[in-house]
Amino acid sequence: MITIHKGHIFHIAGAPKVTQAEQALAWHPDGAMAVDERGRIVYCGNWKDLPASLANAHIIDHAGCYIMPGFVDTHMHYPQVFCGDSYGGGQLLEWLNNCIFPSEALLADPEYARTAAIEWCDRMINSGTTMGLIFGSAHPHAQDCLFETARERGLRIVCGRGVETVAPDWSKQKSSEEDAIRLVRAEIEKWHPLTAEARKEALQFVAIVPRFSLSVTAKTLKALGDLYEEYRDRGVYFTSHLNENARPKTGEIDSTKEVYKVHSYLDTYDGKFLPNSQVGGKSLLGKRSVLAHCVHCTDKELARLAETGSSISHCPVSQFFLGSGTMPWRRTVAAGVNISIGSDYGAGDEFFIPQVLNSCFKAHISEATPVGMDPYPTNDQSVALHPAELLFTGTLAGARALDQEDRFGNFDIGKEADFVVLDPAKCQTMGMTLKHMYKNPDPKVARDAHMFAVIMLARESAVSATYVRGRKLKASK
Ligand SMILES: [Zn+2]
After folding, report:
1. CA of 160 to the centre of ligand 1 (A)
2. Which among 46, 82, 378, 417 is least surrounded, fewest beta carbons within 10 Å?
3. pTM
4. DSSP character for 370?
């Protein structure tokens, strides 16, 4: 049985780089996407060009709605589900100590953890996020709740317990060195698809997730590197934070270099975590490795990320919130690193990826020579990202960061049909603007303005349906 979804369809076709996104844009105002009983796309294009062989298919008419690929969020914190807009009285490290560690400790209670897992999956579905790379809880029962709920709902997730071997005792997050590795291994064995056959169909995967280098020791990094090496060829992921807060001396970057005595923060994840960046173990970098933030990377660090096929999760909303600065767009793109998008909920306070892309646009059009260096910047880094680049970053780049570009991220034939339906009638400003906005006589300019307005003006209320592999997902509320 084939189902045809009819609506205004757009996506980034093929496998372009971000700089080629505009050329790769597929835009079908009167579009149709046909999905087979296995949830695979068998046609995507104009309604009028629909092959005759599909004439008898079942039709779902999303009249007046936009159909775009499901959003891929490559950085979010499940134990922070109730932490959005927490006031910490400072930047990253104050916020962690004053707000986040105590909140995450609440998941030690199994009932609270169940509530958190259900709310988490509901929010993903209600905001059109079909795949999330998720920092998990240190508590195995809380992880089980999330994996179980995601499996029941049919959501895609990659998640791993947050590993901390250095943390205040009261945070209830700390594990012994032995327990840290034992519990990560147990989670992989329980929730990760370990055979190639299982991975082809799986929706849920496990990641190795040290919170950040300051939360672990050289001993932990060595053991995690050995563990990753053992499971690397079975599709296990690695994710952590990198170069987020640059406050001198007491900030995250200087503190990491001070504690490990390394030349660069990235070295700690790259097996070079001994003093003077000596090799002490296996690297955690690779094509299923995602580093969040990367606001203050050196050219050498960016080159190493590109060389290893690692990706960045860019989190502009969270960076605004914690005063971290922003990832330098031009320099990072030029280095050849894949840049995906992350809400970083709860340091970010937006779950809805188009709103994160909205902040991404604003961050980079405002990007300039650092304050204090030149009041009239001649080295202006400002860039007005094309809406196709925003769309690419929120969809296909995420699938690439998770090494699953062959499965989802756009509407190429043969891919699994992950998509979100946006109804402008459910979002007043979006709906009325799209209806009455000035239409440029140049069709290409008009198209770009139209797409930009959809992405920038959409709010969660516009999400009328979220599909994974052709199946409509149901939230509990
Ligand atoms: Zn984070």
Report:
1. 13
2. 378
3. 0.97
4. P
